[in-house]
Design a protein that fits this description.
Layout (H helix, E strand, L loop, with lengths): L1 E6 L5 E13 L9 E3 L5 E5 L2 E9 L6 E2 H4 L9 E2 L2
Antiparallel strand pairs: 1-2, 1-7, 2-5, 3-4, 4-5, 5-6
């Protein structure tokens, strides 16, 4: 597993374990490191040559789960990846 840290507008940082991803190769329309979500079914991160789709994640103290399940109780909207 890999991990990342995300920060909300108040500065609170949350560590997220990343277990599964898939890659979409294309010309991204967002700067690398931008976190994107529809709030219901996907979370993806812009990278230099496309997007990295996060498909299985784990929050601190929670079990590993598919992104669609995680998004039912946790919102990635407004969060940014800590660099």
């Amino acid at each position: 597993a890999a991990w990342m840290e995300v920060k909300d507008a108040s500065g609170m940082v949350t560590a997220v374990k990343v277990y599964e991803t898939s890659k979409e190769t294309c010309e991204p329309s967002h700067p690398a490191g931008t976190l994107l979500t529809d709030g219901k079914s996907y979370v993806k991160v812009a990278v230099t040559d496309g997007y990295l789709h996060l498909t299985s994640l784990q929050l601190p103290g929670k079990k590993r789960m598919p992104v669609a399940d995680l998004l039912r109780g946790f919102s990635f909207e407004g969060l940014e990846i800590v660099k």
